[in-house]
Structures are given as C-alpha cells and as structure tokens.
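<goal> How does this chain fold?
<sample>
Here is the protein in question

***
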Amino acid sequence: MKKSSKWQDISGLIADSFRMSRANYVVLTFSAVVESARSIFQMMIPAMLIDKITGADAFGSVMNAVFFYALIVLLADASKKALSLFSTAFGYKAGNRAALSVGQKGMRIDYGGWEDTETYEGMLRAVRNTWVFQNITDLLCENWIASIITLVPVLYIFSYVDVFLLLPLSGLLILEVFLEKKTDKRVYGLEEGRAADEKKLHYDEKVMTDLKYGKEIRLYGAMEAVVKKYEESRQKVFCSLKQQKKAEILFRVSASAIACAEAVLIYLAAIREYGKGAVTISFFLLFVGAIRLFTESVKSIAENFEWVRELADYYGDYRKFMEKQEGFLAAGGKKDAVQVPFAIEFRNVSFRYPGTEEYVLKNINLAFPYGKKIAIVGENGAGKTTLVKLLLRLYDVTEGEILVGGINIKEIEYSAYLKLYAAVFQDFKLHSYSIRENIAFQESGKDELIWELLRRQGLDGAVKQTKKGLDTFLTKELDQEGKDFSGGEKQRLAMVRALYRNSPFFVLDEPTAAIDPLAELRYFESLKEETKDRTAVFITHRMASTKFADIIVVLDQGKVEETGDFDTLINSGGIFERLFNIQACYYM
C-alpha cells in the first residue's frame, strides 16, 4: 500500500467529513459567524460604557445601554447553544456513518484477513478514531473561521497603537504551540502502543462477564486465574494512561506559565500607551481587549493547524483500514451464474496458510458428483475444515484449481458463487434477533415457508409456545421474553436457516457435535430427505454417521488416503476401518 503524505491525509479527512455531514459544515459556519460577532461585541462593550459614563450621559441612558448589550450577548449565547445542539446531532451522525463504513469494509474483507491479528487491531483503531470526522468540522468552521473573522477588527485597532507588540506575543504563542505539538505526538504514540493491550483487556473483560464462559470458570475453579489475567491487562492499560496524563499535565502547567507572561506583556504595553497620553481610558480598555482577543485568535489558528495535523494521523488509521484489499469481492468474475446440476472437482489442489511454509493440504484430487452425500473424515489436523474453507472460497488454493461445472471458481463472480452454498458450521452463530431474522435476515413475506421448515425440523411446537412466535428474540440478552433454545434446538434452527437459503449445495462442519445419538439419527435421516435432490458434504468425527453417505473421503496429514462407500471402506483394513473400530469398541 502506497504511503500517503500528511497533506493527502488532511485533504482526505476534510473530504470524507464533508461527505459524511454537509449539514454540519453549514451549521458550524453560521455558528462561527455568531461567535465572532459576540467576541467582537464583548470586546467593545467596556469602551462604549466608559464613553457613555465619561460623556455625562444620564443614568437611565447608561442602564439602557447595559441592558441592550446584555440582551445582544444573551441572544448570541442562546443562538450558539441552539446551533451546538444541531452540530452535536450532525456530528454524532457523521461518526456513526464512519463507524458503519468500517463495519461494512470489514464484512467485505476476505475471511482469511480476519485470521490475521493486524486486521482486527486495525479495525479497532479505525473505529476508535471515527471521532475525527466531527472534530475536523469543529476546527475548520468554529475555530478557524471564527478566529479569522475576529482578527480583522483587532488588527485595525492595533494599527492605532503599537504593531510591534505582535512580535513578542507571536514568539510566546509559537512556544506554546510547539509544546502542545510535542505533547500530542507523545499522546498519539501511547495510544498506538495501547491498542494491543486494550484488545486483550476487552477480551479478558468479556471472559469475566459473558455467561457462555461461566460454566467452565466455575467448574474448573478458574475465577482467580481469570481475575489475575484481567488485572494484568488492566494494569498495562492503566500504566499507559498514567503516562499520557503526566504528559498532558506537564503541558498544561507550561501553558499556564506562558499565558501569565502574555498577560503581563499585554498590560504593560497598554499601561505604557495610556501613560504617554496616546489613548483615552475607553481606548485603553478597547486596546487591552483587542490584544487578548488577538492572542486567543492567533493561538486558536496555530493550535488548530497543529491539531489538524494530529487529526490527520488518527485519520490515517481509518484510511489504512478502508484501503485494505477486499480480494474476492473486488475481483469480480466472468460468470455470474452456474448451471444446476453441477459437479465439483478438486484438481491437484495444495494449500498453505498465508505467511506459513507448511502445506495443510497436498495434491488433493476429488470429485463430488451432484446430488451425492459426501462425508469427510480423519483425525484432528488432517485438513478437513481447511478443505471446506477452500470449497466455500474463504481462501483461494495455493496450487491447483477447484472446478464447479467445469469452471474454475476464480472465474465466477464471488457473491454469485457463495449463493451456491448453504452451510452449518460447528461453531455456527445465532444472533440476539428475532427467530424470523435469524432465518431470513432482512427478507420478508415468507413466513409460511419458515413455519414449514420449522415443522420439518420439529421446532414449530417450541416456537408456537412463545408469546411472539417468529418475532420472539433468541436468548434474553436483549428481550426478557426471549427464548433460550437447547443446544440441539439451536443446531436444528441453524439447519432451518440453511434450508431457507435453498442452495443446491450443503456444507456441514460437525453438524451433530451438540446433539445426542438419537437426535443424531433423526438429524441425518432428515438431512438425507431434505437434500435428496442436492449435494451435501459434511465433516464428522463420528464414524457411524458416515453410513448415510454415498461417498466417504478419508484425509490423513493433508492427503486423500481413501475414498469409497461405507461397505467398501469398513472391510478395507485401512484408516477408516481402524477409526471406526476404535470408536465402536466403546459401544460394545
């Protein structure tokens, strides 16, 4: 990835923030004009009041002026606060849009990318830094525009007194901005280094608070170990935060000392001009106010310029993640559909995971005829799950090719290719959404089909017992009236989701891992009936399950060692017979 320059990051940040919230720019620009007018008006009020008093105006006239000035300031403050509410809403919207774009990007990145720690940490940094899109708008509009507008009358006032006073003031301002820049750089470095520790702290906190870890923690008496890990992670994050706060406090003390020197310089210059009789008392007050306003405006412009540069660093994390290669989805393909029925063929396929030298699969040659039931068996580490990952194109082969209907799968448009498959993984995930959403996601209007599939999987009775039917949430995490299904019921619900997809090819990774033997028997009888006109490939560690398969593939150390039906392999004297007999002896 080509490294961008600081100016490219700044321009990219401004362009993205404008795209995400144009309305916020309009609101904040108007707010800047109001703020500038209020600051200038407040600077002039003391001088105007002194002129009225020394001009022997009537007391009532002076009080009217006071009330009028107060009303103007009150209206300006009220307008500013009202605009601030709009700005907060628009800024929150911009941050949400940025976070959503990160999530959408993450779902487009290849699955293999997520097995890389760098991708996950990059996403955390990108999401964490989406606040920059609101802050850059604040800096450009409220601070820069307001400061520039304010400087116009201030410089006009300076032209009547001592323009050279700007030199020492500017020197102090530059020093303060320099210190702030060094502090911000230190803070950014600490935050970068803290990302991995925050990730571990987040995980340790999840282990302590997530119910799914509770049984093992209690059963194995692991509470002390879990708490210790959490404390270690928390301490690392705390130490980093402590260093950050020390750096920030040191800067604040230095900034206060510089501000004190600026105040002394301003008042000495004003008193000198008044002592020479060069200015009236009212102009003296106006001059003091103008110098202070100049200091604040220039400091704001300088600080915010450096702050924009720092924001660009934070934005760089967002940009880097958003520029990550999307791989399969971005590659496209010549074919957007495959003719059913089709056969699948692995031709001289070898595979090793990115960044490794060891092959997980070696020279695999397999054919899956359409409509057949294929069981993939083998010991742990034989390459069964990796074979399925290649079939589903979660990864691309290192060598060789996979053909669907005679077409290399790399030539098929990726989203179209995925529609060929319905999968139930061993670690399948159901969401704390409604039952309907877990099955159909955003698709609607097919409740009849959902009820029919639930009936065929023996789940319709359990769903009908709930108050809300298909609108019932899974688990009580988000809804107290949610339904907690058993492990076997969840397995069947995952099967309903796969059947609803109505794909021609089923892939099941350890589909009976969470259910008892009788439920397993019913599951495979149902599977055979549901997929009678479709192809089904399933990984299993239970050798008895393979009786339902037309073809059994035995993997060993990344190679296909045996293929055939159950009757052929059970008496072959090979790996399958050995594995079957090892398991069978426990049932004798």
Notes: The radius of gyration is 35 Å. The mean pLDDT is 82.
